[in-house]
Amino acid sequence: MSESSAEAVASATAAVASAAAASGGWRRTTGLAGAAIGVLAAGAAAGVAIERMTVGRGMRRRARLALDSTGPYGALRGTPGKAYADDGTELYYEVDDVEPEGGPAPRRRRLFGRKAPLPVTVVFSHGYCLNQDSWHFQRAALRGVVRTVHWDQRSHGRSGRGAAQVDGGVPLTIDQLGRDLKAVVDAAAPDGPIVLVGHSMGGMTVMALAAQYPELIRDRVVATALVGTSSGRLGEINFGLPVAGVNAVRRVLPGVLKALGQQAELVEKGRRATAELFAGIIKRYSFASRDVDPAVERFAERMIESTPIDVVAEFYPAFTDHDKTEALGLFKDMPVLVLAGVRDLVTPSEHSEAIAGLLPDAELVLVPDAGHLVMLEHPEVVTDRLADLLTRAGAVPAGATVGGYGSTSSTAQPG
């Protein structure tokens, strides 16, 4: 979007809001604002243009229903488990074990009087307003190859609402998410080597875990992958908007989010009623390439739409205070993959380059024509580099075959 068009949209949005307020149209305006804030689930900011829609509303609705009923993405399930955070929040996770032919997953066996080493466990942490299913392609590819754990961050997916936030009104912090990850590791992978994989907020969660539990990183973590994430300075991101628009958004957004969170029921109705209008915005801030499978686009929409507005409001302030630059030093002595989409507007690739600059031995992969949800948009690249990382860490035997990871091409079949 050009600077002039963005400014025009921002001005038009302000005019509409002003007119609605003057005419007592708060309910309608709140619904639209709620839908716009829903876009923040992918890390977007307000004031972006809505692409012109040429297909009738009824046809679009039917298409969405068809994609919801037939789309295979997010359908993979593992052995369920529950962990409990230090404030009592119930955290849901699933384990995909490596099962040999004709038998269950192996337990630790004794070899010549000694216990055989436990297999490596790869723990995946998802991003803001997504859930564990966002790793669909990578999960499908690694099934049967390595033991994996996928979990839902508090207040996301199948995990419970943050107890401290609901009961005590305690502000959420990225440090809390790091402690949540520790609880999941303790429950799902209490011993043995670990590989940590985090996307966006999930990468920040990994950094927060390291900052608070350096001994765990030193003793058990054998490799780390940080995808489309940042170690700090998130307040400087402009989301592809002109400076004036960004500054305006930063001034009003905290108050707007708080107000919307207090009107959650009303806002959710507005989000549902206007969801179609914002599909283009969600696409803009999730993907960069044109040829993305519509079912994948719809899959991303569903994850974002499923996050309640009060959860969006609850999490957003935590990013301002996030700074885990010092914690990155704990990953220096292990294989590290730093990967990002070149056209990511949410956590720009410059943030990944900054991380790699502090980890000179890390592999830095910048994916052209990729946005924030790079693991869904270009799964073949992410899975290939992740498989290589696991091989270097000894988690996957050299020469092992990683399963099909599919493609987001509109003409390809899902993996």
TrEMBL record:
UniProt-listed InterPro entries: AB_hydrolase_1, AB_hydrolase_fold, Carboxylesterase_BioH
Residue ranges occupied by any AB hydrolase-1 domain in the UniProt entry: 121-379
Regions that span the bilayer: 31-50
Keyword Transmembrane found: yes
Gene3D superfamilies assigned: alpha/beta hydrolase (3.40.50.1820)
Keywords: Hydrolase, Membrane, Transmembrane, Transmembrane helix
GO molecular function: hydrolase activity
Domain of life, per lineage: Bacteria
Protein's UniProt name: Alpha/beta fold hydrolase
